[in-house]
Amino acid sequence: MNYLPFLPELALLGLAFAILAAEMGRSGLTLRGGSRGVFHLAWAGLALALALEALASWTENSTSLGGYRTSRGIGAWKQIFLLATFATVLVSPAYFRPGGNARGVLTRPGTFYALLVLCTLGMFALVSARDLLTFYLGLELATLPLYALAAFQPKDGDSVEAGAKYMLMGAFSSALSLFGISFLYGSAGSLGFDALASAAQANADSLLLQAGVYLLLGGLGFKLAMAPLHMWAPDVYQGAPTPVMAFLSVGSKAAAVAAAALLFLGPLDSMRPAMAGVFSVAAVLTMVVGNLGAMRQTNLRRFVAYSSIAQVGYFLVSFTGESEAARVAMQYNLLAYGATSFALYFILGIIGREGPETLEGLRGLSRRSPALAALLALAMFSLAGIPPLAGFLGKFLLFSAAAGEGHYVLVALAVGNAVVSFYYYMMLVKAAYLMPTEEGRGAIVLSLGARVGVGLLALLLIVLGVCPALLGYLQGGAG
Amino acid sequence: MDASGSFGSVLLTLTWALPLASALVLMAIPAANLILVRRFTLAMNGLVLVLVGFLLAVFALHPPTAPDGSGVTALAFAADSPWFPSLHIRYHIGVDAISMTLMFLAAVIVFTGTLASWNIEADQHGPKGSGGKAKEFFILLQLLAAGVFGSFISFDLFTFFVFNELTLIPTYLLIGLFGSGRKSYAAMKLNLMLMGGSALILVGIFGLYFQSGIHSFDILQLSQVRFDAQFQRWAFPALFLGFGILGNMFPFHIWSPDGHASAPTAISMLLAGVHMKLGSYGCLRIAMYLLPEGAREWMDVFLVLAAAGTIWGAFVAAKQKDLKYLNAYASVSHCGLVFLGLAVFTTIGLRGAVLQMLAHGFITAAMFCLIGMIYARTHTRQIPDMGGLMAKMPFLGVGFVLAGFAALGLPGMAGFMAELNIFLGGFASERVLPRMLTAASLASIIVAAVYVLRATNSILNGPARSGNEHLSDATFLEKVPVALLLLCILAIGLYPGPLVSLVDGALQPILNNLNR
Q1: Which 8-state DSSP code applies to residue B89?
Q2: If we measure between CA atoms, which residue out of B410, B360, B402, B364 comes closest to residue B487?
Q3: DSSP codes, B387-436
Q4: Which of A387, A411, A472 sits opposite B165 (nearest CB)?
Q5: Cα(B199)–Cα(B192) distance, rounded to whole angstroms?
Q6: What share of chain B is helix, strand, coil (3-state, %, to 5)?
Q7: Which helix (H) or strand (E) holds A206?
Q8: Which of A91, B180, B232, B295 is the most buried (most CB within 10 A)?
């Protein structure tokens, strides 16, 4: 038995407890500098897990251990989760530093990082699951820590509200999923994915099976913020601390997309052609709700929420496509979207130091800091899907998956929505470039680290759009 | 391809790589060093102009020829290497006579546009705060140029699309930051309309890729695929309309008057002169060439739109008081003629359309250039507020007269050759509708004479306005672009023979496809 493929999971588990222990023992065990100590522990541990995961994916093609399986394709999902968590950790320290954020300071960094890491572990279990029980376990572990994280500013009413709302909605969606899983168990006679696959092939018309599938889709739809189950997203994004919002919109979204992909491109693959209509309607509805909603926002967090809902719609488009093309497209777009989003959160972090995270706060950014404004423009053009930036190739792949199966009308509607999205993404560019600076706001001086960050993010947005290497890597992950 | 071919393809790649690289270098030059920023940009664009001129000369001496009856375009300076191998996306470049001459048009306009933007820093009549941003202007200009050059040489649909879209980012910012009037509105309208067009194009490209059965984005390979009629029926209008929006086709032209009037001079020149040609070029090269059966089915619809645009644009232009709007609506009329030439579906008509792309490119660029220079002196673009300028600025005045004559189709100028071919092509059609609509479109020529002569007379003759006494004529740096553009207009008008035979050679494979 080769345990290498499971080392990343073990590393994450160990990391979560190590961080907790370090925080508990802070007085005695003296990690120098309090929050800095656990911060370094967290990112170093995640980097280690990422290295182990890359090693495991490259050396082992496919390994299973009971209801738990890893492969290169699954490894790619896990690497995406780890990158999202890693990026979240990297943007977080400012929010623990007094004066680092106008909205107030976060405390207990150790708990924060430990919860993040546990959440990532849950995502790992979610994508490695080979039976519905492990799947559900992963789903819960990936969600529960987020309730606490959303409410991580207990003295801030918005944050508490976000946590409570997210938990209520989350509990409801978990119940839906569990209900669906019980139906699937009833119709397949087993919790295993293989039994489910043969049941889906043999009697796809069975009402019991269909009920189970749609309930599960509903449960995942909540996690995805798929319209009309998206209502929680704007409130939670607005209330949650910024790093948590970042993780919700990238990491948690990646997990939800991965979960849906693993089920519907996996054991339920044979049902997808019949469900193309459902996915199409859901995709169009989600895109339209997200795009129309985003147009009216001035609070950048709510803006991000609606824009991310629209992005979910683009992901849903690819669910009508051929499974391998769809998987690669989703993974690629998660990376592209994630990189672009973190570029935006990076900017928000700097803006949020002295003012509100609103459109107003962005005014005149091009004069206060040309580099930040340029990065913002790149990020917005990328989100709007303009080549040669990352977001374009991501959307191109998603839509081409659907077009490959002949869903041209859906693709036309999706591309049309991308055009509409250009309008509101440009509102940010307009604020940064065309509007005068507010009175009393001086130039933003970037530290050396921040300048390197801006450069790297900008480079990443371009490289992801034109460099074929990463795409080849993801496509190599079949099986 | 032999060694010289691969050397040529490297030069061809440089046409977009140099502007892109110069944009990166410009970022490193301190904004305060305005002299270096301007000189560097001019040197780079001059280099590109020389490069493209050299390629054109080589091309004209040894034009590649397709075998008789072949529907595959013969390319010069071709190169073909994988980009995203798993998606069958390739960096396939090359030029035929149509793209080669349009490349030359682009190179001339980018170069003259750089000269016309020389004083972008000193322009006090832009918005407050646009001063000190000259560096940004030139960076964005270079990006726009890179996108335009890259589009014209791409024979891979994906690559073409990427380059074409690359122009949107700088366009939005250039109009938004450096424009005048309702610039923010104009920039957004222009970009949304063009992206809408791109959306249609993208869907069409997906269709071509998947329905071809060969999973290819390569234009030359796709040109040999006979797509089924059902597919062509929806894909052709999607592509033609998508490119038509970019090409200023009535009634989807509504972005262009606002966009071109609000843009700074060089950007108006580049957008109206070159960028819009990407649209009509795409209509011909992609929609008609790849989907000939769809083209036959839909041509009457687009014929009506083309004729309507030609006539409507001319009449609206005649009502304008703002010089830039006048030229923008004249562009609608002249671009309508391009589409008329395409849609009459005859050999002569297509030739006329290609000539008109070139002619309109040079003429409208010259007009926008002159209008920008006049505006920089009078600080107004309103025709009634000007007068007697000929006495104050004879060079600009004569230039304006010549450009105006070219716009109204005076023989000996580029516009005449193009329009002559389009109308002859229309009358050469065997069907009644094209002939009728061609006859109706002739009205635009008369109206063009009215608006051009009236505007010219009103701003150049008569008594000088008070406050205009101290106006000066063009500086040397301003004379160069005007002279260069007028030279090109006259060259095409006076000696069109070589150009026509080159274009005819390149049209042959397209015609073979259309008539198959």
Answers
A1: E
A2: B402
A3: --HHHH-HHHHHHHHHHHHHHTT-TTSHHHHHHHHHHHHHHH-SSHHHHH
A4: A387
A5: 10
A6: 75, 5, 20
A7: none
A8: B295
Chain segment A229-259, per-residue pLDDT in tens:
898 999 999 999 989 999 999 999 999 999 9
Q: Which helix (H) or strand (E) holds B78?
A: strand B76-84
**Treating both helix axes as pointing N-terminal to C-terminal, what angle do B497-514 and B34-61 enclose, rounded to 10 degrees?**
70
Task: Report the C-alpha gap between A375 and A429 in whole angstroms.
Answer: 10
- Rounded Cα distance, A351 and A347, in Å: 6
A62's enclosing H/E stretch is strand A62-65
Distance CA A143, CA A122 (A): 8
Question: Which residues from chain A sit within 8 angstroms of residue B165, using beta carbons?
Answer: 386-387, 392
Q: Which residues contact A81 (CB under 8 A, 6 or more apart)?
A: A120, A123, A124, A127, A251, A254, A255, A258
- Residue A18's CB is within 10 A of a number of other CB atoms, namely 18
Chain A hits for B173, CB-CB cut-off 8 Å, are: 377, 429, 433
Mark A362-379 as b/e (b = at least 16 C-beta within 10 Å): bbbbbbbbbbbbbbbbbb
Residue B439's contacts (CB-CB under 8 Å, 6 or more residues apart) are B426, B427
Q: Does position B466 have pLDDT exceeding 80, yes or no? A: no
And the tokens for B145?
A: 């140029």
d(CA B498, CA B504): 10
Residues belonging to chain B? 516
Q: How far apart are CA A230 and CA A241, in angstroms?
A: 19
Distances, alpha carbon A128 to alpha carbons A20, A75, B241, B313, in Å = 26, 9, 47, 63
- Which residue would you say has higher pLDDT here, A164 or A4? A164
Summarised one tens digit per residue, pLDDT across range A97-147 is 887 777 778 888 889 999 999 999 999 999 999 999 999 999 999 999 999
Query: Taking the CA of residue A414 as centre, how many other CA atoms within 13 Å lie in the half-sphere pointing to its CB?
Result: 33
The model's pLDDT over A182-195, given as tens digits with 9 standing for 90+, comes to 999 999 988 999 99
HSE toward the beta carbon, residue A82, CA cutoff 13 A: 25
- Contact across the interface for A412 and B129, Cβ inside 8 Å: no
Q: Dump strand ranges (E) for A145-273.
A: none
Of B168, B184, B200, nearest to A386 by CB-CB distance is B168
Q: In 3-state terms, chain A is what percent helix, strand and coil (to 5)?
A: 75, 5, 20
In this predicted structure, the answer to whether residue A397 has a pLDDT above a threshold of 60 is yes
From chain B residues 133-162, the ones with a CB under 8 A of any chain A CB are 161-162
Which residue of A381, A404, A426 is in closest CB contact with B210? A404
Chain segment B3-14, per-residue pLDDT in tens? 445 888 999 999
Question: CB of A429 within 8 Å of any CB in chain B?
Answer: yes
Residues listed for chain A:
479
Q: From the CB of residue A3, how many other CB atoms can be counted at a distance below 10 Å?
A: 10
Chain A contact for B210 (CB, 8 A cutoff): yes
Q: Which residues of B touch A472 (CB under 8 A)?
A: 85-86
Q: What is the pTM of this model?
A: 0.93
Q: Is the ipTM of this complex over 0.85?
A: yes
Which residues 295-334 of A are in CB contact (within 8 Å) with B?
none
- CB contact at 8 A, A286 and A341: no
Q: In chain B, what residues touch A468 (CB-CB under 8 Å)?
A: 83-86
Hey, is the C-beta of B195 within 8 angstroms of any chain A C-beta? yes
Chain B interface includes A356 (CB < 8 A) = no
* Residues in A touching B129 (Cβ below 8 Å): 367, 436
Q: Strands of A238-304 (E only): list them.
A: none
pLDDT at B130: 43
CB–CB of A387 and B162 under 8 A? yes
| Interchain pair B199, A367: CB under 8 A | no
